[in-house]
Specification:
elongated, about 100 residues, about 25% strand, Trypsin Inhibitor V, Chain A, about 30% helix, alpha+beta
Length: about 100
C-alpha cells in the first residue's frame, strides 16, 4: 500500500514538473547591423546615428579633458569601417578632433 502511494506521488510530481517546465530557448544567429559612415559628422550627431542603428559607441578625442562639448568635435576616423556588418550592440570607436584638425 505504501509502495503504491509513493509511486502515485512520484508520477504526479513528474507530470507536474513536465507541464510547468520552461520551453527551451533556441537562439538564432545574432542580428547583423551595417555600420554607417559617420566620418565628417559632428560627435553628437555621429553618436546619435550609431545608437539608432543599435550600436554602442566609444568616443575618443584629442583634448586634454576629452569631448566635453560634443558639437565642437568632428569625427576623423571610425572603427570598424563603414559598410561592415557587425553583430547588434557591437562597439564602434570614433576618433574626433577639433574642426579643421583632421
Amino acid at each position: 500500500m505504501i509502495r503504491a502511494i509513493l509511486l502515485t506521488s512520484a508520477v504526479a510530481l513528474m507530470t507536474c514538473a513536465a507541464t510547468h517546465a520552461q520551453p527551451s530557448v533556441v537562439k538564432g544567429p545574432a542580428a547583423k547591423v551595417v555600420v554607417p559612415n559617420v566620418v565628417g559628422f559632428r560627435m553628437d550627431r555621429a553618436t546619435r546615428t550609431l545608437h539608432t542603428r543599435g550600436l554602442r559607441v566609444n568616443e575618443e578625442c584629442s583634448g586634454i579633458f576629452g569631448c566635453i562639448i560634443k558639437p565642437r568635435w568632428w569625427v576623423c576616423v571610425q572603427t570598424p569601417r563603414a559598410g561592415q556588418r557587425v553583430p547588434e550592440y557591437s562597439v564602434v570607436v570614433i576618433y574626433a578632433e577639433r574642426r579643421g584638425e583632421c
